[in-house]
Design brief:
Elements: E1 2-5, H1 9-17, E2 21-26, H2 34-44, H3 55-66, E3 70-77, H4 83-91, H5 93-98, E4 101-106, H6 107-112, E5 120-123, E6 127-134, E7 137-144, H7 147-163, E8 165-166, H8 167-173
Parallel strand pairs: 2-3, 3-4
Antiparallel strand pairs: 1-7, 2-5, 4-8, 5-6, 6-7
Length: 179
């Protein structure tokens, strides 16, 4: 059983209401989110970033992890990373500092492993929020609660986590990779 949830308050509630674990599979090379447009522009111009725009998310992650809940994701990166991904490499250490476990999986390896090409969140092992994008912008979420379907996403999560590199290790190894 699945249903369509429009972006906004309903999806934000999913991110706030999970009980144990929220895990994201993030596999688009570029996201064009309105709240990221100005920070990305500043980064491209070499201007400093105080990460104020990211503070609501960082606060949510910190609050969740203080209560023992897990927030984690695996990001699929091209080699070399796209311009958007290079920006994310610069800002994501703040996510890690807030308590989010971020890992990176090279695109070629994700392809070899047969992992999905659509982003999703897996909440508490029981619900999947399959994310839809139009022109690299978040367009909405399909909620999947069928145990059989959710198990498929759980299996993909396990495969991705088994092969992904912790963000800080990836950053350390980046000089050896083509950037």
């Amino acid at each position: 059983m699945s249903s369509w949830v429009l972006p906004g308050a309903e999806f934000d509630e999913l991110l706030r209401s999970f009980e144990r674990r929220a895990w994201r599979w993030e596999c688009q090379g570029t996201y064009r989110q309105p709240d990221e447009a100005e920070p990305w522009r500043r980064w491209r111009a070499g201007e400093p970033d105080d990460l104020r725009w990211l503070r609501p998310w960082l606060d949510e992650v910190a609050a969740a992890t203080r209560t023992g809940r897990l927030v984690s994701r695996v990001r699929v990166f091209g080699e070399p990373p796209t311009e958007y991904q290079r920006w994310q490499l610069d800002v994501s250490p703040a996510n890690v500092a807030a308590g989010e476990d971020i890992r990176v999986l090279p695109q070629a390896e994700a392809d070899e492993l047969g992992l999905p090409t659509s982003d999703f969140w897996l909440f508490d092992e029981t619900r999947v929020a399959l994310m839809h994008y139009e022109d690299q912008r978040f367009a909405g979420t399909e909620i999947i609660a069928s145990p059989r379907e959710v198990n498929r996403y759980r299996a993909w999560r396990e495969i991705a986590c088994d092969h992904a590199i912790p963000l800080m290790v990836y950053l350390h190894d980046l000089p050896q990779r083509s950037r």
